Each structure stands twice: as structure tokens, then as C-alpha cells.
Amino acid sequence: MNLRRVVVTGLGALTPIGNTVPEFWNGLSNGVSGAAPITRFDATLFKTQFACEVKNLDVEQFIDRKEARKMDLFTQMGLIAADEAIKDAGLDLEKINLHRAGVIMGSGIGGLRSFQDEVTDFARGDGTPRFNPFFIPKMIADICAGFISIRYGFRGPNFVTVSACASATNAIIDAFNYIRLNKADIFITGGTEATITEAGVGGFNALKALSQRNESPTTASRPFDKNRDGFVLGEGAGCLILEDYEHAKARGAKIYAELVGGGMTADAYHITAPHPEGEGASNVMKHALEDAEMQPEDIDYVNVHGTSTPLGDISEVKAIQKVFGEHAYKINISSTKSMTGHLLGAAGGVEAIASILAIKNSLIPPTINHFTDDEDFDPRLNLTFNKAQKREIRAALSNTFGFGGHNASIIFKKITE
Amino acid sequence: MSEIAQKVKAIIVDKLGVEESEVTPEASFTNDLGADSLDTVELIMEFEKEFNLSIPDDQAEQIGTVGQAISYLEANVK
To answer: CA A347 → CA A13, A145, A315, distances in Å?
Structure first.
């Protein structure tokens, strides 16, 4: 079967280090940390009291107050990022075939704040079941994709992908496949997540997954550093407009990069721990390369999952060395989570944007907060510590791995005729 | 205006995002104030919470305007 080519024609980002794509890139290239003490609730009693929150968000600037009230924060964020991406793509909604335009958004959890508040309210009452009619639609993880379709009239395939921290990458791969297979021409895709709540922080603390470096939030996310002690919870949304290459060319769209391959595997090992040898992780990168019909030597940059957990960082680097062999020493590797924190189900969206902009701007965003070398990592690897590095990038690979053992990788390539 | 009427108006303004001047006794939630069926259910629920009573479904269905809500509540709130 002849597969169609798929390109990226629009971007939208709402992140802890910038509320628009240009601000996000500015933060990435300057090595800015988005971590700060938690403001979304009183975290005094929690082991972790900081997170990477989105700052100065004026929701009503984008969404009418009456409508916004019916949405959880994760939906509001996804809608705001989608809006930026649509505008950036210069899409004329009067001219495109809306029946061939779809929405696939990833969210690992969904409306955790809405769920927590409503159930708490019920539990505090006398047992009378007085649930708000918007409780379910606010909470369900697919609702953001629904709202986006309602706002823009996209009537093609529409759903959410849920694979924990791989959710957004799974969404992007699904959208990619539907366009390749000629089932649709255009997609809004990516991910959105907002879980900085008592239940979110308390739940991840119980898993011992979060950094507890309360005395220094901005240096807490330190992937590959000897003293890393867990990830920093983030929130936000990252949206891409994916489009059939011929469709994009015909309407004279600006093209950021080509999406050339995606891989998906499972560890089949443990619910939260990564496979110690990074087996699922190496397989997923191999699958993405095969799908793209590329060799490891064709990749110049790997945007890692790299969450700053003691085990995860090691198994991912082992997997990279297994896949790339000697070429591993020639690529740049970086974890943008050192700056953004971990956006869970939105991570794949914002990291796809980081990878695409790295290609476009010939600049590798850094892994900030490197203080002490860890002998577990081969010193010949270039982990892009502390400062961005200039480099022509032919192609970039982005990894995401989720609780449950889900792995997903995608490859973006500099656009060529 | 009774205290009940004032509270009812405030709830409607907040939940439906309308101007206070639009909330007249004759105003219909769905036809005049832009509510859909879920908004109406939410309004009834908010009245129940605010006035600490339970409005049976068959009676809730009869409440379609601001005035109907106020008279129902004035008659039933103890």
C-alpha cells in the first residue's frame, strides 16, 4: 500500500516555562526551570511541596466564562493549546473538508481535580447523592477532544488515547497513521494534563516517584545527575497540526518538519518500574526507525523520556546504547523535563514540539541541573548538560514511556522536497 | 424582593453567566437565558443545596422560568 507523507503545519504549547510556542522555545533554549512551590492547593502536609505549574493563565481570555466553568483545567489547557496550533497553521475552516479533519488528544488521567472535588463534596455530606450534572463530562479523559471538535467543527475521527505518560505520543502516532492510510487529511493531536491536586501529588508521592527536594525546586528535576531523586510533576498541553503533505502543499502551508515514523511496544514487566535492561525501550526505538525506514546513523538528536528517576534514566540510556551502538556517542541526548517537569499524558506533545523546534532552529535544548556525574552513565555520551548546543539536526527521535509499561517513540525529520 | 428571590437570582447570574437585568420573573431558563438541559439540572441542584431541600423530579420539570423557581421555593422552603 502506498502510504501518504505526513507533515507538521502548526504548533500550540501551554507549559510551565511558557504559555505560547515562542515563549516555550525561549524557555527551552535558555535553560529555564518551571518549578516553584505549589499554589494550586495547600501542600504543607505533603512530602513534595513544589511542582511545575502553568503560570499567569487567564482562561477567560480564550474561553467564555460560562463555558469554562463546565471544563476541568486539563480541558481548558488543551483547548487553549489547540487554538494556538490552529491559528499557527493558518487553517481556513471554511475551505478545508471538516469531515476529513480529526482530533486525537492524549491524557493520562483526565479531570482529576473535578473528580476529587465532587467526590469529596459527596463524602462530606449526609449521603444524599447530589452530583453536579457536569461532573462526568468534566472528568472523562476524552472530553477535551470533544470540546475541540465542537469549537472547530472537525467531524473526522475523534478520541483520546490513554497510556499514562506515553498518551500524547500514542495520540500523535494514531493521527499519523490515519493520515498515512488516507482516512483523514488533517488532525489536531498531542496531549493535555492537569493533575497538580492533593490526589495527584499524594498519589505519586505514595509511589515514591516524585522528587522531594523542597529546599530547591528549580534544581529538583535533574535527569542523569548522580543525586536525582524523582520527577517533578508538571501540567500543561502541547498540540500539533498534522497534515497530509500534498494537502499542506496545496494550501501553501508553512511546514515545520515531517513525521516519518512511530513505534509502540510494551515492557510486559512491571506496573511502574521500567525493565532494568530497557528492553521495551530499545524495541520501541527500533520499531520507530524501521517504520521511518531509517538507520540509527540518520538520527542526530534524541529527546529522552528522562524523568529524573533513579531507575528510569539508567534503563533508557542502556536502551539508547543498545539501539545506536557507536553512533550513540555522536548524537545529542537531552531531557527537556529538566525544565518543564513531567507533564504525564501531555509530555509527548510538548516534547514533540521541543524536538520539532530543535530541528527548525538547529539548537539542542539542554538537560539543565547537572551538578554531579553519575558513573552509571558512559561519559562519552553527550547528554547536553546545562547549556543548549548548536547543531544541524537531520532527524530527531522523541521517547515517552508510561506506567503500565507502555512505550512510544516518534521520529521527526527536516523537511525535504 | 424576598431574600429567596435575591438568592435565586444570584445563583442564576453565576451559573448561566447572564446579566442581572436579564433575570426577570418571566425569563425562561432555556429560551431566554441560554441554558441547555444540563444547565437546568444544575440550577435545580444549586437551589436544593442553597435552600437545603429536595425537589422531586416531576416538580423540577415544572420549573422553567425564574418566577416559577421563586414561587416554588417560597412555598416549600421552611
So the answer is: 11, 17, 19
**Which residues lie closer than 8 Å to A293 by C-beta, 6 or more apart?**
A260, A261
CA distances, B9 to each of A140, B6, B16, B70 (Å)? 31, 5, 10, 9
- In angstroms, the separation between the Cα of residue A392 and the nearest Cα of chain B is 52
Beta-bridge mates of residue A412: A259, A396
The pTM (predicted TM-score) of the whole model is 0.96
Q: With a cut of 80, say whether residue A417 has pLDDT above it.
A: no
> A25-39, pLDDT tens digit by residue?
999 999 999 999 999
Distance of CA A99 to CAs A2, A155, A183, B33, Å? 22, 5, 10, 32
Q: Going by CATH, does the domain composed of A262-413 fall within 3.40.47.10?
A: yes
pLDDT in tens, A94-131: 999 999 999 999 999 999 999 999 999 999 999 988 89
- Where do you find CATH 3.40.47.10 in chain A? 6-250, 262-413
Contacts of A64 in chain B (CB under 8 A): 17
Q: What is the CATH number of domain A6-250?
A: 3.40.47.10
Is-contact A68 A157, C-beta < 8 A? no
pLDDT reading at A1 higher than 90:
no
> Which of helix, strand or coil describes residue A145?
helix
A130 → closest Cβ in B16, B34, B49: B49
Question: Complex ipTM, two decimals?
Answer: 0.85
The helix/strand/coil state of B2 is coil
Q: Given phi > 0 = left and psi -120 to 50 = alpha, else beta, which region is A323?
A: alpha
* A59, A69, A136: best to mutate for the B interface, most B CBs within 10 A: A69
